[in-house]
UniProtKB/TrEMBL annotation:
Keyword list, A-Z: Hydrolase
Pfam families reported in the protein's UniProt record: ECH_2
A GO term for molecular function: 3-hydroxyisobutyryl-CoA hydrolase activity
Biological processes per GO annotation: L-valine catabolic process
InterPro entries, alphabetized: ClpP/crotonase-like_dom_sf, ECH_dom, HIBYL-CoA-H
Record field: catalytic activity: 3-hydroxy-2-methylpropanoyl-CoA + H2O = 3-hydroxy-2-methylpropanoate + CoA + H(+)
GO cellular component, one term: cytosol
Designated name of the protein: 3-hydroxyisobutyryl-CoA hydrolase
EC number: 3.1.2.4
SUPFAM superfamilies per UniProt: ClpP/crotonase
Lineage: unclassified sequences, metagenomes, ecological metagenomes
Domain Enoyl-CoA hydratase/isomerase residue range list: 16-348
Length: 362
């Protein structure tokens, strides 16, 4: 395999380490090999005094990263091996390492940033999107729950925005990403090459993070007009602040404001299409995440992972989407009314905080 065929491209230029996800035809979805390559290179650069910052991007215009390779995880569980759990352990360890990285990490996001892609970027010190970005956590649509630190970063969004995004899997655009705080700056896509030229010619001070701040402030915008989330924020907080999913759906069904009625109807349809069990666990997960540390959020998500393939809806969701492609998942339970609180609580049973997060496997 030539260097250009590697799933992650590695380059050093002007004291910056560049990492490029290189599965363009697969929308740069993460494999276990990619996760290991990213972690190994980040570990090397963290100890290299000649590298002052890291840039992370995806190859192509369609996606920075559209998530993890869920077909491989499905196949792993079907085969009876443990690769799917190893994948989550190492993916979360990588994501947590980015959150705690000792040098600035500039995440450049163009196109889709979904699921596992969100895990890579939300810990970056500098999160830059283009106008083409489509960002979200779509897990409940495949019978899963928002992971990769979603219980941490979704739970810390203003009001009930994180609950809304986690339950519905709604994808947001650039203006919404800036408004919600899921991105820091927006750069026009036709300026990406110019940003690279600037990075290649920068003279670094002892404060590389500050140097990047100055460059991005000069080239990017930190606010954009047209945020759809901002326009419906009061309705999101009102509806998604209810105690349980039945209350949330009932509230949406009785929306009386003409300005919000179309959105409320579409949101009810979205909720009705998602896995009832996944949504119920997601609601509990995000609300618990508000009180947990970053390390404990990752640990809780892994606690759920170890049960989910046998007890949750992900195998059925992947079957319907990728295997049989009938797009008619048979969720179990089939309706929100059938989900018992005891069934949800059992997934969280036995979890203890303070375990220190996800440790890298030897």
């Amino acid at each position: 395999m030539s260097d250009s065929q590697l799933p992650v491209l590695v380059e050093e230029r002007n004291q910056i380490g560049h990492l490029t996800l290189n599965r363009r035809e697969g929308l740069n979805a993460l494999t276990l090999d990619m996760i290991r390559m990213l972690r190994d290179q980040l570990d090397r650069w963290s100890k290299n005094d000649d590298i002052v910052a890291v840039v992370l991007r995806g190859r192509g215009e369609k996606a920075f990263c559209a998530g993890g390779d869920i077909r491989a995880l499905y196949d792993s569980f079907k085969a009876g091996d443990s690769m799917h759990i190893t994948f989550f352990e190492e993916e979360y360890a990588l994501d947590q390492a980015i959150h705690n990285y000792p040098k600035p990490v500039l995440a450049l996001m163009d196109g889709f940033v979904l699921g596992g892609g969100m895990g890579l970027v939300q810990g970056a010190s500098h999160r830059v999107i283009t106008e083409r970005v489509r960002m979200g956590m779509p897990e409940t649509g495949i019978g899963y729950f928002p992971d990769v630190g979603g219980s941490y970063f979704l739970s810390r969004l203003p009001g009930e925005i994180g609950v809304y995004l986690g339950l519905t899997g709604t994808q947001i655009r650039a203006a919404d990403a800036l408004y919600t705080g899921l991105a820091d700056h927006c750069l026009a896509s036709d300026m990406l090459a110019e940003l690279d030229r600037e990075l290649n010619s920068m003279t670094w001070s002892d404060n590389a993070g500050g140097d990047l701040d100055g460059l991005l402030a000069r080239m990017c915008s930190s606010k954009m007009p047209g945020s759809e989330i901002k326009a419906i924020r009061s309705a999101i907080d009102r509806h998604f602040g209810h105690d349980d999913l039945l209350g949330i759906r009932r509230s949406l069904e009785t929306e009386h404001c003409v300005s919000y009625q179309d959105w409320a109807e579409k949101t009810v349809s979205l909720l009705n299409s998602r896995s009832p069990l996944s949504m119920s666990v997601t609601l509990e997960l995000v609300r618990r995440g508000r009180e947990l540390s970053l390390a404990d959020c990752f640990a809780l998500e892994l606690h759920l992972d170890r049960q989910w393939f046998s007890k949750g809806d992900i195998m059925e969701g992947v079957r319907a989407l990728l295997i049989d492609k009938d797009k008619s998942p048979r969720w179990n339970p089939a309706t929100l009314e059938e989900v018992a609180p005891r069934q949800v609580n059992e997934f969280f049973h036995g979890f203890a905080t303070g375990a220190g997060g996800i440790q890298r496997q030897a």
